[in-house]
Amino acid sequence: MPSSPRTLLLFNYDWDAVGHQRAGAAQDMAFDEAGFDLFSFPSNASLVWFDMERFVRRLAHQAKAKGWTAVSSNHEQFGALAAALLAERMGWPGTPVAAILACQHKLYARQVLQRVAPEANLEFALLDVEYGEPVPPGIAYPRFVKPVKAAFSVLARTVHNHAELHRHTRFGIWELWVIRRLVEPFERMAQQRLGPGLPSAHRLLLEAPVQADQFNLDGYAFNGDVHAIGVVDAVMYPGTQAFMRFELPSKLPPSVQARALDVARRFLQAVGFTHGLFNMEFFYDAATDRLTVIEFNPRMAAQFSDLYLRVQGLDLHALALALAHGHNPASVPCAAPTAGAAASFVYRVFDAQTPVTMPGTARCKALAQAFPDALLFPFPKPRGSMERDFKWLGSYRYGILHLGGLDAAHLRERCAAASALLGWPAPYAESMPAAPEHAAAPVAHPASPALAGSSPLRLTP
After folding, report:
1. Tens digit of pLDDT for each residue in 24-52?
2. What is the pTM of this model?
3. CATH number corresponding to 6-101
4. Rounded to whole angstroms, how far apart are CA atoms 299 and 92?
5. Quick one: how far is CA 435 from the chain centroid?
6. Which CATH architecture has domain 213-452?
7. Domain spans, the chain
């Protein structure tokens, strides 16, 4: 038997791998891992035979021998739900399974929001046809279309007419297989837990498009009480809905942040979200004073953990581990902030003909020497995978860089200098080439695993 309790981490990659290593070292915690990397081959070949219930059952059988006393995951596609199922089965602290499902089923979530916070909802309707079937007439355009259940913003974009929606729903045999394999574990569980008559998650949702600034409210629930951690601002590439960077601290007025928390509290209480981290994406239009919910993510937005640590001294991964063991996140000690401002800079191209050069060893070494606080994630891909990204997402995200600064102006100067060392254009509007009209919908994570083609090279100074 293990000599001390251990925490099981599911689908622990990218930001989570970095964050858990950091938080675990600070707290002298022991971890084990399970789950496969959706973005690298051959690991993502496990998608072929992945079965959620069998996966959780196997972990439950191993738990006692392994000494696991808690489980945690911030993985949207499979991990958050699998962790909730395992925690339920073992009697460990965790987010209720039905709450995870309610948040991730976009249509169900819209219906709940309409009941409890209609002022923060928007017009929506189910496109109740299977992929590849004829698009019905009578749809008012433009519409923002997205899957009822998906991650990584795959297949989410604005369509302006019947022809665009028709093209958007045409897929090859392999693409359809990937979509079904990604959604089916969720679909089976949602049908079991969310009640009879639930529309299939193998569908698309149509929403009224919104043109407004986008934000992220991060928070947690403990003993049924909902608390805010902070708000991160999302900045888009000009003329697109593709993320260019995420910034902290937020420019959103405190009064609007309080309204966002009120909406989140009403929704989360309605779906029984009593325990765990959450992230609410929303629009705010200052001209009309309108706040509109985009969606609820029933897990930490792991990409932001490092930003909060730099600016607020709060390590979201440490909070997640505290919750996993049933401890109050408010008891987690804060570190001294190291920056007055921080950002996650997203590098992408919108034209498949635009060359992208990954930084070599010399450039990475120069970056680490000049910017020891930098956190770099390059995403190299073969040509075929890049082309699939353009088809599914409208752009190719080839790198992400995290930096801190004394303030927003200093952060901008540091980004420009760091980007020059990498040989990449700094992700600020005036330094970027114009993107094509109607480019991709928001993209916070990589493309679908079977489309990714290769694993990101994870470099930290």
Report:
1. 888 889 999 999 877 666 666 778 778 99
2. 0.90
3. 3.40.50.20
4. 17
5. 23
6. 2-Layer Sandwich (3.30)
7. 6-101, 123-207, 213-452
